[in-house]
Amino acid sequence: MARDTTDTQPIEGIDELVGYLAAGNKPREKWRIGTEHEKFPFYVDGNAPVPYGGERGIRAILEGMQEKLGWDPIMDAGRIIGLVEPTGQGAISLEPGGQFELSGAPLESIHQTCREGNAHLAQVREIAEPLGIRFLGLGGSPKWSLADTPKMPKSRYEIMTRYMPKVGTKGLDMMYRTCTIQVNLDFESETDMRRKMQVSLKLQPLSTALFANSPFTESRPNGLQSWRGDIWRDTDNQRSGMLEFCFSPDFGFADYVEWALDVPMYFVIRDGHYHDMTRYTFRQFMAGAARNEVPDGLPTMGDWANHLSTLFPDVRLKRFLEMRGADGGPWRRICALPAFWVGLLYDEQALDAAEALTSSWTHKEALAMRNAVPELGIGAPFRNATLRDVARDVLAISRMGLKNRAKKNRDGYDETSFLNTLDEVVARGTTSAEEMLSAYHTRWGGSIEPVFMEYAY
């Protein structure tokens, strides 16, 4: 999330919180595609991480991008930590370890999404390359230890860094050493939201498998295909995971609100200052628990919006749905991830087919897939088959959905070609992670350094 919210409207009751989510309902003609992607900056000389400050640091990249794009700076305690397009059509932000993120504009087609991503990568290369900096498209930092990894000066991250070790063993790895590609998609009603939430939760392990791209940690194979996927198994299970209550046939906005109310908070913002609220749930905050501890210690709608942004389930509900299962990857994956989900969820025939395919899948089965995928990728078992077999059916449905959408570029091609990179994974039976591991043991000569050349932007 590029910028935290400061909406000061007071909250009168829980119905307002439910209404906040329901306000995301949009007619189909207004559905859009918002793609986010993160990448690791590194110095070409030595493949070292890039700190925030200095003449060749991340701040210099942000200042160069600001000058080039004319976007408004996002400031935190006087330091530039991101940029936002003045009309809200996109933003650039920093993850805790310096991961550079584009939060894309809400667009109508994957063609537009791919052009946006390519333009962003060209722009950031133009600024970064004279500084000796490039960017790495992987799901996990392959070389640097936590101690080696720089910390970005964002107030919310200082609070999270103190809190994470209290609630899981891998939260700091999640913050500082992972990258993702994510797509944000709309719904037209509570029923539509429920269908999309349930289908996408069940299929999120498949997304993790298809995009598995983080097999190295601290310069060695880590025994996993998606280290990032494994990290999320013990980051903070109060606020993350495959939410079982979402599998209910009558799941709705109110159920998500009731869950979110009982998740510990991270912070509230008052007069530009971040106050640590990790000792309270939002329900306790609404009951007045912090009335005498922070200025204006009663909750606002801005506090609620910010709290929703600190929840990390595999599919996150805000005023849209966020698909959160995929590792970061090469540029082709930036286009493939939104194509995969748009094909499944934005065409009624495809959504019907995906719903029929997954209707009998239980939470227990989906969770077992989620737990197996980090190690086994598309070879993870499911019933009497593997996820590779499931992927063939799911990709066929997604391709049908994209074909039905009939969103064509200037040359007359529809969006189905963006799935080709995923078709290749299924056809060869190996993930990107497995291809990297094969290279490591053969032509890379037991070194991970070539990854900085072959997977760099």
Notes on the structure:
Helix 2 (58-69) packs across helix 3, helix 3 packs antiparallel against helix 11 and helix 11 crosses helix 14. Helix content is 42%, strand content 16%. The protein has helices at residues 14-22, 58-69, 110-128, 155-167, 171-177, 190-210, 227-231, 253-261, 282-286, 301-308, 331-345, 348-358, 363-376, 387-405, 420-428, 432-441, 451-454; strands at 33-43, 48-49, 72-76, 79-84, 91-94, 100-103, 133-136, 180-185, 216-217, 220-221, 240-241, 267-270, 273-276, 312-313, 315-317, 321-327, 381-382, 385-386. The protein has 457 residues and is α+β, with helices and mostly antiparallel strands. Strands 1, 2, 3, 4, 5, 6, 7, 8, 15 and 16 form a ten-stranded antiparallel sheet that branches. It has a two-stranded antiparallel sheet with strand order 9-10. It has a two-stranded parallel sheet with strand order 11-14.
Kindly state the percentage of residues in helix.
40-55%
> What is the number of E strands?
18
Secondary-structure-based class equals alpha+beta
Profile the largest sheet: 10 strands, antiparallel
Number of helices: 17
User: Uncertain regions: pLDDT < 50 for 5+ in a row?
Assistant: none
Amino-to-carboxy terminus distance: 22 Å
> Which word captures the global form?
globular
> What is the CA-based Rg, rounded?
21 Å
Give the mean pLDDT.
Answer: 97
Classify the beta-strand content into a percent band: 15-25%
